[in-house]
């Protein structure tokens, strides 16, 4: 943790004119290093206000229309975490659906800061979800393990420790079932010294030149005494979203200084918790300024999983009773849920039968709502709970069964992840994927080296004939007209 800077003159004069009485209230704080729910005047922790953060950061809320289109375009019922808005917000997901409709590739990218070797259920959410996205879209995926980030930001951690955490975390992540043919996992300290990182590093240096100290201070609250590694790290998490950072995935030459313009132009989708958004605002604001510009990466943001103690609480690796860990035994899970999960039930059985419970604040019910896929069953549980027909002990039992099953499935898979399996995922190599088997819209042709007057290339990277170019332009024109028509018709409705 770094020390706060003295307040600016403007802040001091503001403080002098402030008339509000002193209270214990604090606003919610969400940034990549600090996630705190708001506190009311009496010192009670409140629930996170996700609508407020979406509004403040100008993201879009996931809505029914978007999910309907998702289902239409992909042919898959949206994941329950989309239906139930655990993934609640996004940036430009529509553009990824457009890309998929045209049968064009995009890069899936996510990551984790390995701050301990114990992952809890909250940590597995983005990965379980990313695995589902990988299955739905059939696209290449990169997973970045930022041991350098955790080393730079956590005073006490040593480099070799975070590296070891990364290896353990990578094995946990592999256990979620990622297809090795389509997935490249990298540990920063290893990849950045491997020789396969030339294009990544060239991208990072170019991006570092575009970003000023003022920009990273604005985005992350850095100040004069922040170490310079933290300043520079942001660029790495940003350029990790450029497909041109990983030419080997497409079987391209890694030795040349020349980065692929076509890969740079490839879209990217990043599933992540909402606290990571400041990084990706930085890349979205600056990617068009790269020599080979990249489109703004699209994002799908998740909420934070509630701690066992209830709303506003945080799952923490240092408090074993705050969360269910992926290494817990069934007995431990049972004990934690029975003894530590916040219940929305009444004090006594009689009162519960009479007044009913409140599933909205009941942590066992909330966990069920994340892991039970059956919408009807979930509704029934909530309904019976409200009526007092279902007791909190019974709700807890449902939750224990569900969570034990989830953890057991994970542990079975984890026991098969040997060092050899890990090395295969970590090896920079060409990946294999198929993408959309039935594109419904024509491809938009991208040109390689247009800035240098080279030939226009088709989707397979071969130079296009004049006629093929004419045809592609015509198809794009027809497509554009059709879209305008659709938009006009939609506006009339
Ligand atoms: N900074 C993230 C963390 O501390 C790790 C990370 C790197 C990441 N790249 C990402 C997370 C992309 C989500 C998406 O956890």
UniProtKB/TrEMBL annotation:
Region (Disordered): 1-27, 432-470
Subcellular location: Cytoplasm
Entry keyword set: Aminoacyl-tRNA synthetase, ATP-binding, Cytoplasm, Ligase, Nucleotide-binding, Protein biosynthesis
Biased composition (Polar residues): 16-27
The enzyme's E.C. designation: 6.1.1.2
GO molecular function annotations of the record: ATP binding; tryptophan-tRNA ligase activity
Predominant location category: cytoplasm
Gene Ontology biological-process entries: tryptophanyl-tRNA aminoacylation
InterPro entries assigned to the protein according to its UniProt record, in alphabetical order: aa-tRNA-synth_I_CS (IPR001412), aa-tRNA-synth_Ic (IPR002305), Rossmann-like_a/b/a_fold (IPR014729), Trp-tRNA-ligase (IPR002306)
Pfam family, one: tRNA-synt_1b
Enzyme class: ligase
UniProt GO cellular component terms: cytoplasm
Family per record: Belongs to the class-I aminoacyl-tRNA synthetase family.
Name this protein carries in UniProt: Tryptophan--tRNA ligase, cytoplasmic
